């Protein structure tokens, strides 16, 4: 009897409980249910940008893990809004973004992988424009990357190079004592009134300057393939002989370039310590030899070996705690033979492809098997295929097939209406035109990324 009574009580209580929980939901409860949304997850890396589909209502900084570079002070924010729908990752950690449509995102920002690459050589590495009246055309054909993907430093040796290559009236030129003038205190500081101190000049951001040469195309392609950020440091010097790049001479082009790179490593060291970046690769591109057309291949080979040995040591960064890393590659960009007619006759370029000392040395260096030259590769010799109008047209048609695909892989400031189809489209006398620079940069980045296994 006791058991039956207990059972009856249990059944009665269960019935009440069931009736309570199966009762129709009140209007108030329905409203509460509608406002509870599950958080969506989003992962970014430092200095990324992201655009939501709906306007942003609020941003809550949940946890800040990084510091302002060079200090022990936490970053102010993980995410900040740049416009109604767009955010920028200004720190590492976690933030919660609520949109006006009710959606909620939990955004985790991690340190960004980045490569540090030095560009050295002479005028074609620097990005020289031979015809000043064509500057507007060069600028319209530059390739600019999304913000926060490609950083750049360009320190000209001459004021006119700053004007005709970097599009700023440089008040100073690079020497062996002022490298810090061209490198900002941190990698994302672009508030200086001096364009040469900005690192965002190869991006679509506001207050950017642009730059002629292969830099923009190389950076864009590198980021597209690796999905990593890259900092390009261009210390090339127009009209320079390889003998002017000899290491160990104070004030030489080599000395200036390494002081610029060393200052960049200082900044990178602090950025890594702050938690913003992690160093992925180091390497350099070399494009020089037109000034040494009369030099024997053996002499050029010897000079380059000395240069390369010093670069391996000096770029390692042994004094740095976090930016210390061996170079992963040394990319050679094939040079051209130069004689007296090259400067005045832009159509007759067969002489450009004739063997000479530097050109022969390049081929030997890239395929030597010498342990000293480990990681030295031929990054690009694409200009070898541009010896006539017909060959230029054939190359671009075979490479891209259509102008639509060309514009896809070469997102220039102004889209192309047609594929390049003449020598005049890609270079004039000794220097390349911007379309030629673009293709050199793209093919060099592709070859190096393939070599590195990306």
Q: Strand portion, in percent?
A: 15-25%
Which secondary-structure class do the elements indicate?
Answer: alpha/beta
The low-confidence runs, each spanning 5 or more residues with pLDDT under 50, are 1-34, 342-347
Work out the radius of gyration.
28 Å
Number of domains: 2
| CATH fold category name of the largest domain | Rossmann fold
Q: What general outline do the C-alpha atoms trace?
A: globular
Order of helices and strands: HHEEEEEEEEHHEHHEHEHEHEHHHH
The CATH homologous superfamily of the largest domain is termed SGNH hydrolase
Average pLDDT taken over every residue: 89
Bin the helical content: 25-40%
CATH architecture of the largest domain: 3-Layer(aba) Sandwich
Biggest β-sheet: count, sense, barrel? 6 strands, parallel
**What strand line-up does the widest sheet have?**
9-10-8-11-12-13
The CATH class of the largest domain turns out to be Alpha Beta
Tally the helices: 13
Please provide the count of β strands.
Answer: 13
Distance between the termini: 79 Å
